[in-house]
Amino acid sequence: MISLSYAPIKEFFELGYWQYIKFFEKKLSNHHYEYFFTEYFSLPKSFYNDKKVLDIGCGPRGSLEWANMTKERIGLDPLVDKYIKMGADKHQMKYEKAYVEKMPFSDNYFDVVSSFNSIDHVENLAKSCSEISRILKPGGIFLLIVDIHSYPTFTEPQMLEWSFIKDYFAKFEILEEKHLEVVHKNRIYENLRTNKVMKKQKSNGVLTAMIKKPVLP
């Protein structure tokens, strides 16, 4: 895992990636997110009615722009101030600048928390998962999409195992979990659309899961 002292370098590379993408796209699109929040996990749009939703590591595209039926929709990212300058200020969703390891929300606040291609970017995995559990309401849903890779990078310092859910969310109920093959290199969402289930465990792939925080008696 990369030390916290490398955080500025990590964020430099992450910002550089988005600036590169924006240069070619001109205007960052966000239409694809709705599918992965709904159809991919077999959730109707109505599931989100009046719910409080948080997208962790949201990036600048506007990942929750589609979710105008929610009670509250927030994207959390340490680079929010930079994203605002890239056009995120025009979005209807709210952005919060913070690290996952210390989120500025009260206990049991959100109905849905998502981490799409972001949990392997954090500095402290245990603290991040503890915070996700803390801010989710009992009965709340955590949606996960993440690469499983065999080596760290500056932007993805965490090398997650296929046992990630069991290791960090042992008390949660697994509603769905998939281990997918890498068919399209460096194209995580295309791999989800291809949806090629892994028959034999490999060191690289894509892990997706929908898990539920237990309701205390």
Secondary structure blueprint with pairings:
Elements: H1 7-25, H2 33-37, E1 52-56, E2 72-76, H3 80-85, E3 94-96, E4 110-116, H4 125-135, E5 136-148, H5 164-168, E6 173-180, H6 188-194, E7 205-212
Write up what this structure looks like.
- The mean pLDDT is 92.
- The protein starts with 6 loop residues before the first helix and ends in a 5-residue tail after the last strand.
- A seven-stranded mixed sheet has the order 3-2-1-4-5-7-6.
- It is globular.
- The chain has helices spanning 7-25, 33-37, 80-85, 125-135, 164-168, 188-194; strands at residues 52-56, 72-76, 94-96, 110-116, 136-148, 173-180, 205-212.
- It has a single domain (4-212), classed as Vaccinia Virus protein VP39 (Rossmann fold).
- α4 (125-135) links the parallel β4 and β5 (136-148).
- It has 217 residues and is an alpha/beta fold.
Number of domains: 1
The level of helicity is 10-25%
- Briefly note the structural class of the backbone: alpha/beta
CATH architecture: 3-Layer(aba) Sandwich
Ranges with pLDDT <50 over ≥5 residues? none
Shape: globular
Q: Taking strands numbered 1, 2, ... along the chain, how are they ordered across the largest sheet?
A: 3-2-1-4-5-7-6
The percentage of residues in β strands lies in 15-25%
Which value, in Å, is the CA radius of gyration? 16 Å
Q: Look up the CATH topology.
A: Rossmann fold
Distance between the termini: 37 Å
List the main descriptive attributes of the protein structure presented here:
alpha/beta; 7 strands; 217 residues; seven-stranded mixed beta sheet; Rossmann fold
